[in-house]
Model the fold of this input.
Amino acid sequence: MLKFITKRFFWSMVTLFTILILLFLLLQFLPGTPFNDEKLSEASKALLNAKYGLDQPFFSRFYIYMKNILTEFDFGISLSIQRNWMVKNIVLPRLGISVRIGLQALALGTGMGVLFGVVSASNKNTWLDTMATVVAIIGVSIPSYVFALLLSYTFGYKLPFFSIIFDFSDPIKSSILPTIALSMFVMAQVTRFLRTELIEVLGSDYIRLVEAKGVNRFKVIARHGLRNALISVITILGPLTVTLLTGSLVVEKVYAVPGIGSLLVNAILTNDYNVIVMIAFVYSALYITMNLVVDILYGIIDPRIRVAKGA
Amino acid sequence: METNQILEVKNLQLSFRLDAGVNHVIRDISFNLFKGETLAIVGESGSGKSVTTKAILGLIDDNGAVEEGSILFRLRENDKEEIVDLLHQSKSYMQKHIRGRKIAIIFQDPMTSLDPTMTIGKQIMESMLEHKLVKSKQEAKDRTKVLLELVGIDHPEKRMKQYPHQLSGGMRQRVVIAIALACEPDLLIADEPTTALDVTIQSQILELIKDIQKKTGVAIIFITHDLGVVANVADRVAVMYAGKLVEEGLAEEIYYNPKHPYTWGLLSSIPSMDSKEEEIESIPGSPPNLINPPKGDAFAYRSNYALAIDFEEIPPFFKISETHSVASWLYHPMAPKVEMPEVLQKRLAKYRTQKEV
Done:
């Protein structure tokens, strides 16, 4: 198992490294410049370019870029949003709240999804199953910003339990509505997948054998059914992380959450290269980490994967 | 129920509700099982043999309903004996006291009947722990080791920690047998236990089952579609067709003196080593649809020996000997005398001489 994790970790690092290179290359194709001010003269533009090293040849810029990131995790300074601030000092403090909302949404969504999925599958074709399916369909078909608006209208305005926009004095309470809004899609997907998968597993030969052993229904589902059904549900957790990341751009905007989602939108609008690079890098890192976690979970849950890849 | 009987199925009738109508899968069958004996139930797919075993275990799907009959089982617990009707027990009673504890089952396909995510040791221990037959995990482990040795798996210590995918098909079937034996059941149902295995492994598993019966004295219901397989295993054979028993007798009686045209067909269709000049026989046609079961003898429509009354009335059982009975109008005193096909006669004669040698 340790060998398996080490190997996966190594390849994650290689992927991240490749992403750094790709990000730099992609950035070269980005039109425009961070110094868009019409009042600037050609001379002062040249001065600014020189100051931030934008006039250097390609390979020289690439070398400085890679060296700074790899040695000091330094993505340079912000060119427009908060001019001359270190990018990492802008991004990192905002990272916490985004990651927290993302993880909360993932946990809440998966938890609810597993609950609904199990209830639905073990009461197949009853009203409970129908209810869970309806909830799942709603969750899949309505985009997260609609939930965000609905929630803030209902629980922020009509029944003022929460503040409509993010409240710095109480970040935990403020994260509840965005979390719920983000989790709906995850919940719906997990419910749908788990229901289908669990129904299939519960109809399998080995479940019949467990029943024939005289094991009680609860243990049959929890110990054998759920565990086998989760293998396929874990598969969708990776792609769902992407949904969470993109969803967070919108939801953070709706609730004015000071996270990296809203920061990225601003950075793109103002051509703040270094901020874009760092956030893109952070998003990639989050996604890769999630996939690493998923792979490790696979190994834990499914012995066939663990053993095949060298326990 | 006689004292040496462990199970008595009486007039069992069972059907499933389908979209197309009510499927009468089991149409009035009765049989007995004595302590320590092996009864083979033989029949082609869809004849209702597996459903019968499911009914015994109380594992009939929700759309199935028992219309009539009883399944009496002699339950021994702490020197007390009582007779319970398995058809009229609650689900939780069946789960707590019968399934896995007193009646265990071996399924057909060992490749799919083990949970791929659990070590085989845990899967064997599960039922002992569930039925509280052992006081500690350690005791369960020790018992599992003994069981694995009993079913012929070496290095039990190591094997216990392995997962199903690390074992071959034959080994997995041995594990399934070990699971079945975990709680020392009084009745073991083997539902086509060798069908999914290749021929060399088949005979090993059959030997193992016989061997276990000798050691533990467990009664066995052996379900199969292959009369060839049961020849060495069964004490008695019951032949099933379209949800009814058509012939029942000691294994020798069924093999050397079969009476029902369906049994003739089954015996003729066993491929043999020297079937060069003789062709392998097959029974023409296919089993009837049991949503609208045919009037009279269901096999009459595929039989060369059918009488006019076969299409009108269901034949009762006619006794051939004390132990041998057959449900066919051919054995009514008024029926014309018929002999089994000549090819089969030759073949059975050969079996007999082989046995005497």
